[in-house]
Amino acid sequence: MKLLDEVFPMQTNISSIFYKAQKVAKRLESELGEEQHMYIEGCPRDWEKLPKPDIPLTIGIDGGYIHAREGNNRKAGWFEAIVGKSLQDDRGTKRFGFVVNYDTKPKRRLYEMLKKQGMQINQEMTFLSDGGDVVRELQMYLSPYSEHILDWFHITMRITVMKQVAKGLSLEDVGLKLNVGDELDRIKWCLWSGNVFKALKKLDFLRFDLETFYEKKKSKEYKLWKMIEEFYGYIEANEAYIPDYGARYAYGESISTAFVESTVNEVISKRMVKKQQMRWSKEGAHLMIQLRCVIHIPSYHWNIRLTLD
């Protein structure tokens, strides 16, 4: 507010800024087409006749949680927002975002972002995500030439947490000659090389050995067993999306959504979940996310001026 008062020869007020920002965001929403389950059109014969596509697109999808507002309720909890970013060496980046369980056109939103990036139906693209149901469904049926990869960062993060829990546990007291940390390292390197079968086999043995703590629900040992049980299910559910990360890394291909982290910070963190945090309604947060996604696109600045007329 102080900056606006200094720059412009007019007085500004919070309600006016709120009204204008909301008006622009709603205008952007109204320009979005109808949602579809599938955006793939034509057949392989038609795709082969198309011009040679540009270099492959890389799309990373991640999420975060925003402090909810429900009247004067100070314990309203949190709700989830999804943010994505597409990369292409010669065309810069594009962003999109939405609030889960509020937005009714999430797949259309992603599709339109890819179209603005210059996507062709016969273009190769790589999607990286944490493997959750929401983001997995979001990226399906957008392109016949897409590959879907489980984000390596989320795998290593889970293993790191399990190793921290395993520290200090003495399993020899119950007759288990087992170093959980070493076993988790072996599992990690199996996954790094794309050997999911071997990783699941080792995880299965590990959870079987620790099942003796099933009845001790308040113990650290039980917590560790529970985490390994959940990790087994996580890897099993995403088995088809785990490549040879080592080979991809060697060829300079993306294996992580780390490049999306800055976008998460730009779009949903400031004044939402970090310092200066505010409480948001789902509608308010969703509209603000739309504005933050487009202010990084120079071609949108003139359009925004037009919407205020």
From TrEMBL:
Name of this chain's protein: ISKra4 family transposase
